[in-house]
UniProtKB/TrEMBL annotation:
Organism: Paraburkholderia phenoliruptrix
Site for Transition state stabilizer, residues: 20
Gene3D superfamilies (UniProt xref): Dehydroquinase, class II
Gene this chain is encoded by: aroQ
InterPro entries recorded: DHquinase_II (IPR001874), DHquinase_II_CS (IPR018509), DHquinase_II_sf (IPR036441)
Name of the featured protein: 3-dehydroquinate dehydratase
EC number(s) on file: 4.2.1.10
Domain of life: Bacteria
Matches recorded under Pfam families: DHquinase_II
Biological role stated in the UniProt entry: Catalyzes a trans-dehydration via an enolate intermediate.
Catalytic activity: 3-dehydroquinate = 3-dehydroshikimate + H2O
Quaternary data: Homododecamer.
Length: 151
């Protein structure tokens, strides 16, 4: 029995996870990450919908649809983190808790990765914990949603 549903959204090029740059992103594929999230969802009684797109408009359309369908959003916006006011606006408009995830420690990398448009609309941010960051984000989301339900 699930008590809430969470959309796990992934931005551009994350479909290539596990195919190169293992020193930065590890060797797991996006399918492996989807499996980790579904397993975490079962353990936490969360229904998990896991999606990836390379297109900004697709990510925004999914966020708009999520408004009436999900209770929270875990998002790795990938490079759109550093460029997209549109994704930040969509996240803000849907008024659901957001946890931002980055596999790598963006603060140890190039300066252009240090700023995130999404962080200002996120309840929490998990950075540099590898793919485990997605599981940590779902754990945090379960806590937030349980606390909200209890109020
Ligand atoms: O660390 C993260 O999770 C990032 O969101 C990943 C993005 C990057 O632009 C952000 O600054 C930080 C890049 C996603 C592309 O991932 C690939 C992984 C392996 C091979 C090719 C791309």
């Amino acid at each position: 029995m699930t008590f809430a549903s969470v959309l796990v959204l992934n931005g551009p090029n994350l479909n290539l996870l596990g195919t190169r740059e293992p020193a930065i992103y590890g060797s797991e594929t996006l399918d492996d990450v989807a499996r980790l999230c579904r397993d975490a969802g079962e353990r936490l009684d969360l229904a998990v919908d896991f999606c990836q797109s390379n297109a900004e408009h697709q990510l925004i359309d999914w966020l708009h649809a999520a408004r009436t369908k999900v209770d929270g959003i875990v998002i790795n916006p990938a490079a759109f983190t550093h460029t997209s006011v549109a994704i930040a606006d969509a996240l803000s408009a849907i008024q659901k808790p957001v946890i931002e995830v980055h596999i790598s420690n963006v603060h140890r990398r190039e300066a252009f990765r240090h700023h995130s448009y999404v962080s200002a609309v996120a309840e929490g941010i998990i950075v540099g914990c590898g793919t485990q960051g997605y599981v940590l984000a779902l754990e945090r989301m379960a806590t937030l949603l349980k606390n909200r339900a209890a109020k």
